[in-house]
Amino acid sequence: MTDGREKMNIQWFPGHMTRAQRMIEDNLKLVDAVCEILDARIPLASRNPDIDRLAGDKPRLVILNRCDLADPEATAKWRRFYQERGIAVLETDAKSGKGVNGFIPAVRELLKDKLESYAAKGQVGRPLRVMILGIPNVGKSTLINKVAGRKAAIAGDKPGVTRGRQWISIDAGLDLLDTPGILWPKFDSQEVGELLAITNAIKSDVLDRETLSANFMLRLREHYPDALRERYKIEPDPDLNGFELLEQAAKKRLVSKGEYDIERMANTLLKEYHEGKLGRLTLEMPDDRAVDTGK
Ligand code: G4P
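# guanosine-5',3'-tetraphosphate complex -> structure
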């Protein structure tokens, strides 16, 4: 964790998540492969840490979505990270559709043994079945809609809201099992919570946005100081704490009648990151935390 960050109390709704977890276990036998949609800016924190245990030996595809908002060099590192663990990787920007046309070929490649065995048995056209997993707001509906080429799943910006499971048939011999967006039940890390909150996966009204934003300032100072210089015209002074950095930015950006507004600055920082206005910034790297993917 970055030194100097304030402690935060981040909570969400464990009931939903436990139910969703159970649903994955119950439905895994219905699918040939598991596809996890991750936020390319937080490719670990946006991942269900139980997925390796849950998915067992099923072939796996990781989609690094929102790659339009992520640092391309970091995305390349994450691609290698997952590939080295035997997991196929696809980079997408579901909003614009970039990379999405690689989805069907990636699934067919992942399951080529299965396709060959279907062909050998004369089961031509038997669809491949893929479970789609992803935390709320990661872009799951948007991606599925783009793959399906029609309004198949309902997109919306409502972190924490779950939907029932549904099968979506794609023309090219592919059935997708859409699952409710889930966050995991064993949540005890402030690091993960902050990353999810900064990237809008957790409802913003369950936490203190000013502290979140102050802590985010410290991350930016450490990893992307130029973003602070360029966007907010402030020097990433190592002697300041996160609130003081917010204050500096507010003094540059949000002064009205000689007064500046730190609370508004906190919201502006989070909003502008969300909109990509600070640049393409990835918030965790493969070597940041010890990772056991079980592969
Ligand atoms: P979900 O099903 O996983 O809950 O997510 P959903 O598809 O509803 O997407 C949540 C928001 O994220 C949508 O925006 C969507 O347009 C956006 N989004 C999805 N994929 C990408 C991507 O690759 N890049 C970018 N930049 N955005 C993406 P929204 O509801 O309009 O809200 P907003 O987040 O744009 O404000």
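# post-check
Confidence is low (pLDDT under 50) at residues 154-163.
Residues 190 and 211 are 12 Å apart (CA to CA).
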